[in-house]
Fold these 2 entries.
Entry 1:
Amino acid sequence: MKNSNSIQIGVVGVGHLGNFHVKQLSKIPEVEISGIFDINIDTAKKISQEYSIPSYSDLESLFEFSDAVSIVTPTNSHYEVANKALDFNCHIFIEKPITDNLDHAKLLLKKSKQRKKIIQVGHIERFNPAFIALEKIDLMPHFIEMHRLAPFNPRGNDVPVILDLMIHDLDIILSVVQSDIKDIKAKGVKVVTNTVDIANARIEFENKCVVNLTASRISQKEMRKMRLFQNDHYITVDFHKCILEEYKVHSKKENIPNNNIIEIGKDNKKYILYKKPKIEKLDALRSELNHFINSIQNNNNPKTDGTSAVYALEVALEIEKLIINNEK
Ligand code: NAD
């Protein structure tokens, strides 16, 4: 676009995840990587050589040659980089969370609207094939249990676990439960770092749905699970293993196919139909970057847009505030 028919995309921050952004973007036919920028010269040089792409010594030069940018720097720099990218009229993809500061996030949203530029935020679980399978089911949950547990990793510790891990689940539930929040209770503990490492929040919605979220970055095992309970229906999504399982209660056997039936009760028998749809494992990062490109090409609002990211951040910061106030 700026200089050719392809969309020119720059990548800012080519550390652990930025490297994957470059890898996936380089496979999208409509994209040409305009270049990269990283404050770590050695990292920038390595990626520049590996992919034969220019490495710029300042953000401005990169943005000048870019229609869009992928911002994959630590969270505390998201605002500064994204704000500058918007000054250069670039569409922006920002890794999650959008920023660590609500006012900054709102300023980015306002500026992107004024400049008619897209903001997509890296709430990648919405592109997880198991979650996409869930979206096809009629959902009216009364209770949702979310677990996101990860072993300790020094990366991402510049923010509390609520902004690093729980934010994924907050984005998910705010897209699933279409109701305003009535009340939040939260508790968390700093175990290893100077910010909260393990957190639990209980969110009650106006439609009476209750969500219980637990996020830990000091777990021995990895778990990313969502369990939804609604009338006569239980659904579980394993984001890590990319599995969806469904148990639906029927009162009559003739309504359901013969396979996978569990009978319960004696006189008033009930029949539980178990389903485990075949889910094709796709690379969620590739899907979300493709979605970003399609949104730019068709001038569509991305599904993980700036507005939904600001809402998830607002709830995350409220949870953090409740935890800090609870400590006093
Ligand atoms: P990282 O530390 O491995 O990489 C960050 C890179 O950014 C480093 O190379 C660093 O030198 C560079 N950098 C730092 N400040 C910069 C600046 N101002 N300008 C240019 N470059 C700068 O971190 P990471 O694990 O790749 O995380 C980066 C971002 O991705 C964070 O926002 C994190 O929350 C997010 N992330 C998202 C997911 C997900 O599931 N979507 C997973 C991991 C990380």
Entry 2:
Amino acid sequence: MTMKPLLAASTAVMLAGPVLAEPQAEVLHWWTSGGEARSVAVLQEQFAAEGGSWTDMPVAGGGGDAAMTALRARVLSGNAPTAVQLKGPAIQEWYEETGLADIGPVAEENGWEAVLPVRIAEHMQCEGQWCAAPVNVHRVNWIWGNKQILDEHGIAMPTTWEEFNAAAETLKAAGVTPLAHGGQSWQDATVFETVVLGLGGPEFYQQALVDLDPQALNSDTMRQVFDQMRVIRGYVDDNFSGRDWNLATAMVMNGEAAFQIMGDWAKGEFLAADKKPGVDFVCAETPGGGFLYNVDSFAFFKVDGDDRQQGQALLARLIMGEGFQKTFNLNKGSIPARTDVALDEFDDCARQSAEAMNAGAENGSLLPSYAHGMALRGAPAGAITDVVTAHFNSDMTSDEAVEQLANAVASAM
Ligand code: BGC
């Protein structure tokens, strides 16, 4: 026997390593709209291409409230899913409650620290350990417009709330619904936080919705915010109650309404319907500018079994892969969380988003979205949303709303 085949045989054994189980993952998420489903499919395909077996657990409901209820039920029954769409301080809340799998080895092997902005990396860590993997950065404070309607009525995208109101009055007088809105509490909260930022500015936003400063919550500026919310209430159609966000986006697409105020997952919806930015629809930051960020991420509960643990490691690696971050975000409407993914193939709205994010990091206007679970823990965020929704859906005065807001936050802390 010569040396050659012997060497080849031993090399083959070394390369094969230990026998691996087939990676398994049951994935809980709330990406069920057209654009969202197209995006999560990218992850499913990559997972399958690497030999993984994916069990889908979609829980419909924009903003993820229903998904979070389903998650709690699963954890309480001692049967946590392998991977969960989870974000912001909820990651740390779950870590404190049940522990989360340590994905540090994947993060270190793949150099996550070097390619993530510090602010995003911090959201992904629990007591210094990597406990979640980010897929994107969504900007929440966008206003979308139907180009044809706006052109027909000679309306430019508004840069102040006064301009927005003036445009809405023109549209209303012409019989066009100014604002497509879905009356679900998280959508009310989404509009509300853009008004807080736009009318109050970044410092006020930080004080009111991040630091929960009682003076800011109970201020004249906050009164003006509720005044503007009341004005906005007059610009939605009669059937807004309970409507899903993607149906509101469809109203803008189909010319049934002029504007929608919604994060850039709405762009994913326009794109999935083959609508072109700048041609069929237009994007602009909501009046006042700034950048409210909403980073989607996945966390991994502690599970038994090699197959499931390997599924977690594989998912974490794929999620942070350069190729995945590009393709996923082209579909989702967001921009990559990784700073080293080129934006050449992205549209102008995405480039504008990246520029505003970088500028915001320099000038203090890069802020976490409260409405999308990035700024606050569950209890105070829920308390604020309850008041915002109660105000939007009644004839509560701004004075009453401000008082209720301050009280609700105080008792939730
Ligand atoms: C999530 C998005 C999602 C949107 C609507 C947001 O909270 O971050 O990924 O598309 O809700 O469901």
